[in-house]
């Protein structure tokens, strides 16, 4: 199966939202364990477990480990996912639930995932008749606990079922974590084929379900949620976090639109509810130009497709929005000094 683009290394200072700790503590208390004491053992003040506090990932990882040791439950992350309440991830849930399709919903997850944690970046890309929600942990300085990934993937599946119906099932789930001694809980809760011990975490969804327009979508409400998230990021992570998000927003839209056409600034700006002038100004503040970001995104995707997929050169040119393979070949020579076929042979 195709692999996602690589993610940025994680700093040892990476943090996650305090309300995530609250969900872990809640499940521990419900099962008869002293959640507050386990928080303290992990170096976390139980009183700080709320959405306004950022907690080091090293501490949350330790809490996950202590919780699994106490409960003896390798599927503990799945239960925590079921305990997540509205407001756990601030207003991100509002934006997601107001999205007009699953594809748009996952694009928002990718765009604003750092509101939940800056311990990793996600990728959501289309591969033929599938979409892949990917999280590559291999380059991270601090490896998140596997239970946190279990919880997130379970949450993603629950979000899909909330929008499309409880019978919805992904095509496949690939997890880095080792196979549990008893995988029956994973099979029962997730209801999808699972491959354990994979090189990355990948949730595979069918394209038709992802692109289905949902009746309960509300573009205005989703945009209001996006604005609140940006304000939160500016307040908690500084203005630079908002500036970085513009380039990430543009890249996310480009990845989605390139297989259909070559996007122009006007179309992308409209997708982000910005004027072209505002988009140019905010990209410039980050050190980008529109042309540079389009070129960089295409270059990164080209290497990804050539090195990790079996797509033909013609198909890859199409996926990158080129009118013909000759234009794609010229671009590869400009980027790498080689033809697409030569790049592929080096993988």
Q: Can you offer a commentary on this structure?
A:
The chain is an alpha+beta fold. It has helices at residues 18-30, 35-41, 57-71, 76-82, 92-97, 102-112, 146-164, 184-190, 207-211, 219-237, 239-257, 265-271, 276-286, 290-308, 313-319, 325-336, 340-345; strands at residues 15-17, 54-56, 123-127, 130-135, 172-174, 194-195, 201-206. Among the domains are: 15-81, no CATH class; 293-345, Arc Repressor Mutant, subunit A (Orthogonal Bundle), CATH 1.10.10.60. Helices cover 55% and strands 8% of the residues. The strands form 2 sheets. A 5-stranded mixed beta sheet has the order 3-4-7-5-6. A two-stranded antiparallel sheet has the order 1-2. The radius of gyration is 21 Å and the shape is globular. The two termini are 15 Å apart.
Q: Any idea what the radius of gyration is?
A: 21 Å
Low-confidence spans: pLDDT under 50, at least 5 residues? Answer: 1-12
* Large-scale geometry: globular
Quick one: how many beta strands?
A: 7
Summed over residues and divided by their number, the pLDDT gives a mean of 83
Largest sheet, spatial ordering of strands: 3-4-7-5-6
Helix count, per DSSP?
A: 17
The CA-CA distance between the termini, in Å, is: 15 Å
Largest sheet: 5 strands, mixed
């Amino acid at each position: 199966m195709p692999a996602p683009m690589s993610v940025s290394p994680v700093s040892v200072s990476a943090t996650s939202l305090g309300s995530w700790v609250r969900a872990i503590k809640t499940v521990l208390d419900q099962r008869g364990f002293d959640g507050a004491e386990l928080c303290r053992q992990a170096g976390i003040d139980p009183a700080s477990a709320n959405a306004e506090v950022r907690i080091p990932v090293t501490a949350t990882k330790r809490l996950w480990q202590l919780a699994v040791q106490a409960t003896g439950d390798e599927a503990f992350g799945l239960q925590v996912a079921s305990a997540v309440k509205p407001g756990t991830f601030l207003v991100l849930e509002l934006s997601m639930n107001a999205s007009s399709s699953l594809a748009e919903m996952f694009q928002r997850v990718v765009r604003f995932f750092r509101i939940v944690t800056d311990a990793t970046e996600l990728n959501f890309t289309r591969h033929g008749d599938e979409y892949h929600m990917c999280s590559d942990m291999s380059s991270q300085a601090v490896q998140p606990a596997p239970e946190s990934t279990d919880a997130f993937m379970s949450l993603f599946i629950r979000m899909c079922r909330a929008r499309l119906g409880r019978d919805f099932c992904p095509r496949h789930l690939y997890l880095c974590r080792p196979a549990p001694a008893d995988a029956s809980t994973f099979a029962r809760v997730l209801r999808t084929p699972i491959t354990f011990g994979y090189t990355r975490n990948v949730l595979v969804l069918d394209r038709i379900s992802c692109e289905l327009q949902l009746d309960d979508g509300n573009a205005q409400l989703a945009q209001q949620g996006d604005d609140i998230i940006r304000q939160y990021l500016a307040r908690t992570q500084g203005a630079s976090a908002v500036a970085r998000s513009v380039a990430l927003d543009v890249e996310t839209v480009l990845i989605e639109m390139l297989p259909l056409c070559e996007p122009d600034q006007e179309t992308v700006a409209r997708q982000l509810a910005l004027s072209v002038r505002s988009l140019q100004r905010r990209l410039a503040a980050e050190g980008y130009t529109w042309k540079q970001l389009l070129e960089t995104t295409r270059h990164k995707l080209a290497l990804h497709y050539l090195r990790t997929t079996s797509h033909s050169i013609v198909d890859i040119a199409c996926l990158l929005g080129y009118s013909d393979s000759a234009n794609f070949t010229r671009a590869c020579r400009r980027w790498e000094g080689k033809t697409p076929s030569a790049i592929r042979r080096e993988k």
